[in-house]
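Two proteins were folded this term; both appear here.
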Amino acid sequence: MEAFITVYTGEVFLFWRGLQPSVSIEDPEFAKQILSNKFGYVKPKLRPTLLPLTGNGLGMLNGLDWVRHRSILKPAFTMDKLKVMTKRMAACTIDMIDDWKNKALMADHQYMMIEMSEEFEKLSADVIAHVAFASSYVEAGEVFKAQKELQKQCIATVMDIDIPGSRFLPTPSNLQRWKLDNKVKNSLKCMVEGRIESFQSKEKLDRCYGDDMLGLMIEASKTAKKSLELNMGEIIDELREEVLRECGMGIPEADMLTKLKLVSMVLFETLTLYGPVLELDREASKDMKLGNLMFPKGVQITIQFLKIHRSKEYWGEDANEFNPLRLKNGVTHAAKHPSALLAFGLGPRACIGQNFAMLEAKVQASLSRWIILSRHCCGSLASCSNENDLESMQLCRVDCGDPLP
């Protein structure tokens, strides 16, 4: 990506993906106009081999189909509904911390490293399984495993030449992809059908699809049919103090999490510098004019999130440095352009799960405070190699307020 940024400079340039012309955009004002337009710029079609991974979900739909699906999903992601799920998020995070404690004890004073990225990846899957499927979380966990394997199979085909009809040939990779796709679809179908049957078997007054996301979406579907800089150590101390001040030493309530301003700043700054989405594609559904540019129908437009997020023109000379306090006046005032932060997209198609993701991250940060919000335990977690380290770990827990019994 660094080589790409070095070679291709300028806010607008044309490049080709095979036979598909694409225009690269780095101007946040252009990005705002494109993402705020409901129907002029649409999601381009994916390679057929990637469809088993994405399906015809909200992110892939356009037009009235997108409107209908969005109206069904939106009620499940309102803050009032998400606040109810805070306790489940907290329970999953506490289970992870307990697991770390057990591993540290089992190490018997021997050095042991825990890969944090893998742990939090598992935690995210566990939270989604509990919050989205509640009583069906065990089955959901199996679905996630199959989906992760399906992801590897699909991504492996990205650089392959797309020969028409090749996806129908019974090659080993196609057979494996079909098998995993069927497993994911059948498992999800069984969970949905089981929930509906459970609803129908209940007494009329007690009928409820459930307070998890699956239940809320089924209900919605039925209804629809009817400027100071701090160094990293100081930032960690500030974070720790804020979490303790707002959440105390117990399990945080949803209303407490909304007061974690510095935590929000750190999360958004992390998404700005290390966001999971490097670029976003749109396709002109008709001849479109953007500023002084004309885009013929069918041309793809690539919005370069990474280049916008690290542009010194919009973020200043410290654009590549981690500085959460640039967000002290809010997301829209963090840069010279109010639309320069595109972590969750923008406009009507902005990420529907933004509130869920931020709430989950705040729960994890507040409950992990005795590990990740202390100077003693910053970085990767290791079980302690000697008696002094174990003593430091216990002092750290007391100092930060261990929420566990």
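Next, the second protein.
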Amino acid sequence: MIYWGIIYVLRGIRWFLNILSWLIVINAFMSWFIDPTHPIRSFVMRVVEPVVSPFRRLTDRLNTSGFPIDFSPLFAYLAIMILQQIIEVVENFLKYRAAFF
């Protein structure tokens, strides 16, 4: 059925978002210890930056009172977690529908 095809696509999207969320966390930790020109860090930054940059523009508008902490990876991580939960609800709904058809 078409429901199962959509379910498998949604599972793939959830896997991708899960890997992306881990890369955001890894990039945040690597920013404390590893130079930005390191090959591994530069690769992770190239993957993560398109997701984090819109949140960075939003956090630039916030007054963080001079804190040297970038909250944009945290906001990107939370947005990905919310998106994963929404996809999981849709996936479970489609599983329920597929069981009856």
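The chain is about 85% helix and 0% strand. The chain has a mean pLDDT of 91. These notes refer to the second protein only.
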